[in-house]
Design a protein that fits this description.
CATH topology: Growth Hormone, Chain: A
Number of strands: 0
Membrane topology: Multi-pass membrane protein
Number of domains: 1
Subcellular location: Cell membrane
Largest sheet: none
Pfam family, one: MFS_1
Structural class: mainly alpha
Radius of gyration: 23 Å
Keywords: Cell membrane, Membrane, Transmembrane, Transmembrane helix, Transport
Number of helices: 21
GO molecular function, one term: transmembrane transporter activity
Strand content: under 5%
Oligomer: single chain
Length: 524
């Protein structure tokens, strides 16, 4: 064997190792960013009482520390996805990480409530650049089939467990460090990820086209108005209903008008921000609708179970965070298993199974009472819903981003993330209205029946429990809508659909003049 042969063989082995390692490193970077974005939606929640004391927030102003993030995150999602398609996904992904990191640093240093709210809104803008480009990078970096399925499994595990991890990390940081560290913790994560990204993420081409400015304005403002209106509408903990408030009505009417205008603009645009054909694909459209319903129910369950643990059972923030640890672990483990079998079973079967498990677990939560313990009242339904989410998220992520042209991958990914953000807003608004109305009525009835001047702790605990029970029942009903959406709209592609890129998910009869493009192997 000659020296040149040995050298060539060594170079080949080195190239093979590099090609094998690069996708793994790329996935690590993407998942770190996604976990940071999802975690940040809940990490601040456990720190709110400390934040209120430190920055002298009013009771109504405190919600903006959470709402400010949600509005810009949800409102700018479509724009972030399209920016990645047109400017290059890696470029937009890194810019989002840097923006998120800077906002986190300034937020941690905030001395006024206004500064914190502003930085939370900027964090949301950074997240709107990160989330859709992260998912699009996965769908365009990994080869369809087992490699893509497993990458989506890791991504889904991070997305599904992030909320639970956020509660735990927020409790630990608030208790043992300072509320400011729920902001500071993002800085090293964001900067390290931004430094690694240029080295491990593949270059993505800039696609031809221009920004659809009318679509961007109407779509962004429409989604932001919808999230704001729904977030502001919920009945508060005193039983006061805000659905009739002027700001809520104006926001919801404006959202309806802006989103209607957005649809008209997109139908007429030669280069739309959101090609309507993406929504009219049955499997993708059904996935977005099912995810919206699923998250609507789950967001309320997560929020109110946290309140039950702390307000009724007397858990500390750290204890309540640890209580959700089985949820996070199971979601990660089940997602990994599902990513290995989805190519054989097909996504529809798994989505239905996950939806049914989530429904049963959510309904089981409604059996709690004041005497419930963690083991006999909470752990069982938590395990079931964690398994359900672990089963459903991987196939949903695959079907929500499948069968699209590469230049539309960012938009498809942004629709998945937008469905989640709007679902959270709807869930907290609708379920919050149900829960707090029941709680207020129960307290009044108990006080009147006992002839007491004020409610006792036992009365309050009973009222909260009854309200949470009702909320869980409504959440289970909303989960049924997700199952119906899957049954009615999600098609059953062949088991090998993920390997050859073909699907059978198109809705017959939906063809938009000027917007339909016949493509082999894509929607018809």
């Amino acid at each position: 064997m000659t020296d040149s042969t040995v050298t060539s063989s060594a170079h080949a082995r080195s190239a093979d190792r590099q090609s094998a390692q690069t996708p793994l490193l790329a996935l690590l970077v993407i998942v770190m960013a996604q976990l940071m974005v999802v975690l940040d939606a809940t990490i601040v929640t456990t720190a709110l009482p400390r934040i209120q004391q430190a920055l002298d927030f009013s009771g109504t102003g405190l919600q903006w520390a959470v709402t400010g993030y949600s509005i810009t995150f949800g409102g700018l999602m479509l724009l972030g996805g399209r920016a990645g398609d047109l400017l290059g996904r890696k470029r937009v992904f890194i810019a989002g990480l840097l923006l998120f990191s800077v906002a986190s640093l300034v937020g941690g240093l905030a001395q006024t409530s206004e500064t914190l709210i502003a930085t939370r809104a900027v964090q949301g803008a950074g997240a709107a650049m990160i989330a859709p480009t992260a998912l699009a990078l996965i769908s365009t970096t990994f080869a369809p089939g087992p490699q893509l399925n497993r990458a989506m499994g890791v991504y889904a595990a991070a997305s599904g467990s992030g909320a639970a991890v956020g509660v735990l990390v927020g409790g630990l940081l608030t208790t043992y460090a300072s509320w400011r560290w729920v902001m500071f913790v993002n800085v090293p994560i964001g900067l390290i990820t931004a430094l690694l990204a240029p080295r491990v993420l593949p270059e993505t081409p800039r696609n031809r086209g221009r920004f659809d400015l009318p679509g961007a304005v109407t779509g962004t403002l429409g989604v932001a108005a919808l999230v704001y209106g729904l977030t502001s509408a919920a009945t508060d903990q005193n039983g006061v209903n805000h659905w009739g408030d002027t700001r809520v009505l104006v926001s919801l009417v404006a959202a309806a008008a802006l989103l209607a205008a957005f649809v008209v603009v997109e139908l007429r645009s030669a280069q739309p921000l959101l090609p309507i054909r993406i929504l009219l694909h049955c499997t993708r459209g059904g996935t977005y609708l099912a995810l919206l319903c699923l998250v609507t129910g789950a967001s309320g369950v997560f929020f109110f179970m946290t309140l039950f643990l702390q307000n009724v059972l007397g858990y500390t923030p750290i204890q309540s965070g640890l209580a959700f640890l089985p949820y996070a672990v199971l979601t990660v483990g089940v997602s990994e298993v599902v990513s290995r079998i989805v190519g054989r079973t097909g996504p529809r079967v798994l989505m239905l199974a996950g939806g049914v498990l989530t429904f049963i677990g959510t309904l089981w939560y409604a059996q709690i009472d004041e005497s419930s313990t963690y083991v006999n009242g909470i752990l069982g339904p938590m395990v079931l819903t964690a398994v359900g989410f672990g089963v459903i998220f991987v196939p949903m992520t695959l079907t929500g981003t499948s069968d699209v042209d590469p230049e539309d991958a960012g938009v498809a990914a942004s629709l998945l993330n937008t469905s989640q953000q709007i679902g959270i807003a709807i869930g907290l608004a609708t379920l919050g209205s149900v829960v707090w109305s029941v709680v207020a009525n129960s307290v009044r009835n108990q006080v009147a029946a006992a002839g007491a001047a004020a409610p006792t702790k036992a009365m309050t605990d009973h009222a909260l429990t009854v309200g949470f029970q009702r909320g869980f029942i409504v959440a289970a009903g909303i989960t049924v809508l997700a199952i119906v959406s899957i049954l009615a709209l999600v098609r059953s592609p062949s088991a090998n659909a993920g390997e050859d890129g073909s699907t059978q998910g198109s809705c017959p009869g939906f063809h938009l003049p000027g917007h339909h493009r016949a493509r082999q192997g894509t929607e018809s």
